[in-house]
Specification:
By secondary structure, this protein is α+β, with helices and mostly antiparallel strands. The protein has helices spanning 20-30, 37-45, 90-104, 119-127, 168-171; strands spanning 10-14, 50-57, 60-70, 73-81, 109-115, 131-136, 147-153. The longest helix is centred in the middle third of the chain and has 15 residues, at 90-104. It is globular, with a radius of gyration of 16 Å.
Length: 175
């Protein structure tokens, strides 16, 4: 089976208000400074610019991803998977679905910010062709941690490439 295919009972669909409580639970468990409920409500209601997706298994939300259209750029704002479903390629599936949506809306670039210490997320984004383009110091309010700004060109082939380069200044931090 292709590693990127969903399980038979899995689906990725647009997030709805019905999904909100499950999404908030994943958000609170995944992030030290979770987005408020009203922010998610606004995202769900913005059909022109926002792309909120959920991954579901047997009808239950197991992950979500959110992105925005900004001219010809697709900005990925959040991606999280329920603790019980991590390391099962759900994040990859959501990221690919987001990127395909951006491509389908004629976006040429995808951007995102990621915590400098979030090596699992950095690795996932590199697999999809994202490269660091800048470092935003003190970006995260809760910890003052830096954010790595990453970017990739959106292309027809949005599959995980077989190899990707390590980024020494991200991987090997001075301790």
């Amino acid at each position: 089976m292709d590693e990127m295919k969903l399980e038979k009972s899995d689906e990725i669909v647009r997030m709805s208000l019905h999904d909100l409580e499950d999404v908030l639970a994943i958000e609170r468990d995944s992030f030290s400074n979770p987005w408020p409920k009203d922010h998610f409500r606004q995202i769900i209601s913005d059909r022109k610019h926002a792309v909120p997706l959920v991954a579901k298994r047997d009808g239950e939300v197991i992950g979500y991803g959110i992105a925005w259209l900004k001219f010809e750029t697709f900005h990925i704002g959040n991606l999280a998977v329920h603790r019980s479903f991590r390391r099962r390629k759900i994040g990859q599936r959501l990221l690919r679905a987001l990127m395909e949506t951006g491509l389908g809306r004629d976006c040429r670039l995808a951007t995102l910010e990621v915590r400098e210490t979030n090596q699992a997320a950095i690795s996932l984004y590199r697999k999809f062709g994202f490269s660091p383009v800048a470092l935003q110091t003190g970006y995260y309010d809760d910890t003052g941690e830096n954010a790595i700004i990453m970017m990739t060109e959106l292309r027809q082939d949005v599959r995980t490439p077989p190899g990707y380069q390590m980024i020494p200044h991200v991987e090997e931090k001075d301790r």
